[in-house]
Amino acid sequence: MTLSSHVEPARQTTTKRFASDEEIVAAVERVRDTFDSGATRALDWRERELRQLERMLVDNEPDLLEALHSDLGRCRFEGVVAETGFLVNDIRHTLKQLRGWAKPKRVKVPLAIHPAKAVIQPEPLGVALIIAPWNYPLQLSVGPLIAAIAAGNTAVVKPSEIAPATSAILSKLLPRYLDSTAYAVIEGGVAETTKLLEQRFDHIFYTGNGSVGRVVMTAAAKHLTPVTLELGGKSPCIVDSEVDLDVAAKRIVWGKFFNAGQTCIAPDYLLLHESIAEQMFEKIKATIREFYGNDPQSSSDFARIVNERHFDRLSKLLDSGKVVAGGTTDRTARYIAPTVLRDVDPDSPVMAEEIFGPILPCMTVASVDDAIRFVTARSKPLALYVFSTNKATTDRVLSRTSSGGVCINDCVSHYAAPELPFGGVGESGMGAYHGKAGFDTFTHQKSVLDKSTRVDPPLRYPPYGEDQLKWVKRLM
């Protein structure tokens, strides 16, 4: 399996290399030398780099937002909420908590090995490789980097070539604000990523699809490198009969069509209780009009599909059900209207893979138990959403399903809670980050036992006798 099978080309048709093999090897060696120097272990150093990263985001926010708009048609509000502002808040939270996270933790030791003290000492793993996707190209490049810096690592960042404007500005800004001997940016596509994966890293953090995730994991196995895989999947949204329809419609429409549905935790499909389905369709249609007007293509708040290849893929899914809302397209503008489909067959193309676009297939169920059975018969999703005012119902869904994360009566917002670990399970990924979980991902918890030499009981030394064994048993 090779990367070329799964990584699509950037919008530009050039095959020019952004970095030669020699430049890639040199960059990895440079940041490893810096890590080996011990400079990044100092908490003052880590805090300084994090503040520099915050400065980069604040100083250059207009240019960063313009790059996001160029790549994805992202409006300023969505760019700030999901990218620049989100990252600044992440850095500030990390700076506030970092010294507490990094502090050694004293633990008890058994009486048999006294006198001694034991601590768990957090230490950086070393050199990290961060491979980012195109859908949130700034946040998902810089977010893992925040955690890597906080933990004391050096890193190589590989932005997505499918978001070329954001990749270019990251390549320009990160070396300007961060220590360029500790952090490198490698732009490019398949060739550059393949060469990077041949190098030895101490942790690889990949965000993207499962196919490439398998390629990354296979490459990491050569060096026994641990990996974090932030993947995706079809995140279900269950809507119970006992529900506030107005609130549910607004939160589902917002979560689904933010960034034109190109969000790994967007609701991928709805399972509507049959008793409220017709009402829900009307509420959703009205909400789409309220959010984006009668012509969403003219709305400055609705993003665009990242490229023509994804546009063509998504367009083929529009025939998978009866159109309730939307359904219109414009390939030249890479526009697909916010679309809702009903009467969708579970075996239809739109249900075969993660949609990653502004298409919301809907199916009806006779009960929440039917919805649970539908979800558990499929791969474990990255997120699961349930709307119900009945706590017994939401508890039942929680206890009988497995997913990376859950939102009750909302969509997507669990991602914004810094102390909730974010990650997948099963096919939707492995490992987690955000807040302390991110610090821990890039950290080795080293066990240290410090035993005094002032007293040296002879109990453990040969020749052994029955009296010794009796005493040892008492002390264990």
Keywords:
476 residues; alpha/beta; seven-stranded mixed beta sheet; six-stranded mixed beta sheet; 20 strands; 41% helix
The total strand number stands at 20
Biggest β-sheet: strands ordered side by side in the sheet: 10-13-14-9-8-15-16
- Average pLDDT for all residues: 94
Low-confidence stretches: 4-14
**Shape, principal axes of CA atoms:** globular
- What is the percentage of strand-forming residues? 15-25%
Q: How far apart, in Å, are the first and last alpha carbons?
A: 51 Å
The class by helix and strand makeup works out as alpha/beta
Q: Give the oligomer, counting copies of the same chain as homo and different chains as hetero.
A: single chain
Question: What value does the Rg take, in angstroms?
Answer: 25 Å
The major β-sheet equals: 7 strands, mixed
- The number of helical elements comes to 15
Describe the structure.
The chain is α/β, with parallel strands linked by helices. Helices cover 41% and strands 18% of the residues. It is built from 15 helices and 20 strands. The chain has helices at residues 21-37, 43-59, 61-72, 76-102, 139-150, 164-177, 190-198, 210-222, 245-257, 277-292, 308-315, 368-376, 391-400, 435-441, 466-475; strands spanning 105-107, 116-124, 127-131, 154-158, 183-185, 203-207, 227-230, 236-239, 269-273, 322-325, 329-330, 335-336, 339-342, 359-365, 383-387, 405-408, 422-423, 429-430, 432-433, 443-451. A 7-stranded mixed β-sheet has the order 10-13-14-9-8-15-16, with helices on both faces. α13 links the parallel β15 (383-387) and β16. α4 (76-102) packs parallel to α5 (139-150) and α5 (139-150) packs across α14 (435-441). It is globular and about 85 Å long. Residues 4-14 have low confidence and may be disordered.
